[in-house]
Amino acid sequence: MKQIAITVVRLITAPLSETGRRRVMRLIRRSMGISGFDAVVHDVPSPRGTMKFYCLGNLPLWRAETALSKEPETIEWIDGMVAGDVLFDIGANIGVYTLYAAVNRDVQVLAFEPLAANYYLLNRNIEENGLSDVATAYSLALTDTDKIGRFHAQDTEFGSALSSFGQHIEQYGQSHASDFEQGMIGMRLDTFIETFGPPFPTHLKIDVDGIEDQIIAGAPNTLADPRLQSISIELDSTQHDYVARVTKAIKNGGLRFIAKRRSAMFDNTPSANTYNYLFRR
Question: Please, are residues 181 and 168 in contact by the beta-carbon 8 Å criterion?
Answer without folding.
Answer: no
